[in-house]
Specification:
Layout: H1 5-11, H2 16-21, E1 45-49, H3 56-61, E2 71-74, E3 87-93, H4 99-110, E4 115-119, H5 122-131, E5 135-137, H6 148-161, H7 170-184, H8 198-206, E6 210-215, H9 220-232, E7 239-242, H10 250-253, E8 263-269, H11 275-287, E9 296-299, H12 305-326, H13 335-343
Parallel strand pairs: 1-2, 1-3, 3-4, 4-5, 6-7, 6-8, 8-9
Helix pairs in contact: 7-12, 8-12, 9-12
């Protein structure tokens, strides 16, 4: 089925596979923030308001390039109580109509906090234009989840321009990661047969199961992205968790009932994780052997944590889209979420 290109093109009506193949380009997209320059100054913290796919770039940035001050991703209607004129506030919504983000923005405006905006348009874009807020315009993608690396590039630029990025020279690494990802995706394309294609192989292993994805602290954003991709691309229930917290509670949850649980466990591993995190994955697999499905280990590739992140995220995108095709569904549309927003 996955090697039948006619079937693939029929089911993948909006070419999701083509979109994820080209997402390496997002890492080197040149943003031109509307307004002459960002507001410079000494910020004590950063608050990023965004939901779903619009928050992914911020979450990835907590692993790389990281922030020199406290950084909180706010997925709520209300801002944290500590927001002040010393807060760098970023409002992100691909559609521009996300009500939680618009609510948080309204609170920021009442506090006199000038935001930086990341959006494709909508109400958020209109508000930004009217008030002359610095704006990062995200190019069109079929769905917000496909613009995660645009979001990362925007957040990196904002942090860099305000002197808040731990990695003070991120652009060369973004360019190198883009080249690396471009080369890597060639192994996962639909033209590569399933016996040679690791993304197709993993999708077939996960067919009929609910994926459960785990990562260490650095790979946690990638694990969360995998969860979103399985939800929205494959239209299947999925969960994610992170080490070391897993070891303190969820570990025991796997020890009861038969081993043939209807789950597919995926461990996202990176050699850049703390050595004790590496050890926790190994000991967990040993002690839970025979008590849960054996985990599928995805070992991140690349020369630094950024490359590990984007490689793993892109690989998960391919796996989830191939799983959608195995499920006989189009990976791109999410009609029920659109209906939910209207009903709400």
């Amino acid at each position: 089925m996955l090697d039948d290109l006619k079937y693939v093109h029929q089911r993948d009506s909006q070419d999701a596979l083509g979109v994820v193949e080209k997402q390496w380009q997002q890492l080197v997209h040149s943003f031109e923030p509307r307004t002459e320059s960002l507001e410079h100054g000494r910020f004590e913290n950063v608050v990023f308001a965004g939901m779903g796919g619009s928050a992914l770039g911020a979450l990835i940035s907590t692993s790389w390039p990281k922030c020199t001050v406290p950084f909180e991703v706010c997925r709520d209607y209300n801002l944290p109580n500590y927001v002040s004129d010393k807060t760098l506030f970023i409002a992100s919504s691909y559609s521009g109509n996300t009500e939680e983000t618009l609510s948080a923005l309204a609170e920021a405006q009442k506090l006199g906090v000038k935001p930086v905006v990341i959006t494709h348009g909508g109400k958020l874009g209109e508000i930004a234009k009217t008030n002359n807020y610095p704006t990062y315009h995200i190019p069109a993608t079929p769905q917000p989840r496909f613009s995660a690396l645009y979001g990362l590039a925007a957040v990196v630029d904002i942090l860099k321009k305000n002197g808040l990025a731990v990695d003070t020279k991120p652009k060369p690494k973004l360019a190198a990661a883009a080249d690396f990802l471009h080369r890597s995706t060639s192994a996962w394309l639909p033209t590569v047969p399933k016996d040679q294609n690791p993304a197709k192989k993993l999708a077939m292993e996960l067919a009929g199961k609910s994926p459960v994805i785990y990562g260490g602290p650095l790979m946690a954003p990638a694990a969360y992205k995998w969860k979103i991709s399985f939800n929205e691309n494959a239209k299947t229930v999925a969960w994610w968790g992170s080490f070391p917290e897993f070891s303190h509670n969820e570990f025991i949850g796997w020890t009861s009932h038969p081993v043939d649980k209807p789950y597919g466990v995926v461990d996202l591993r990176s050699s850049f994780e703390h050595e004790r995190i590496q050890r926790r994955f190994t000991v967990t697999a040993k002690l839970l052997s025979g008590k849960r499905p054996a985990p599928h280990t995805v070992q991140a590739e690349g020369s630094n944590i950024l490359e590990h992140l984007v490689w793993t995220i892109a690989f998960g995108d391919f796996v989830s889209i191939y799983l959608a095709l195995l499920n006989g569904i189009d990976p791109t549309p999410i009609e029920l979420i659109e209906r939910f927003k209207k009903e709400l």
